[in-house]
What we know:
Radius of gyration: 19 Å
Helix content: over 70%
Number of helices: 5
Amino acid sequence: MTLRDVVEAGCETYVFVAAAGSAFYFVKGALRSSSKGCRLAGGVEELTTNGPHVRRWAAWFGVLMSIEMGMCEVRQAYGPLNVAAAWGGANALFAVHQGPRAAVREGLKGAAYSGVAGLAAGGLVLLLQSPESSDC
């Protein structure tokens, strides 16, 4: 895997999240506008209102994916450390404009959130895979 592959994965993630977020907000706005001729206008209005949110989320996920793939390439292994470093790095990068203390705080929060999300996802997988016992 080259640097180009890592950047390409980040760009693909950005495009996917931007398209999905835009579609979500358009449908949300179209469904909220209940009058007969205003559904299209409601969808467009919701989309333009929430455009900055979609761009930020798409950029965050793109950076997250790039860091995670870079960590996988460097460590030659996939694991929770890669995810924690990616979430922490992405959060810290997006908080740099607030100062160094805020960037460190957000990076640590991102790593902690990834740990909690990983534990929750792992617990759900184990719960769904465990055989149901009929004994009470």
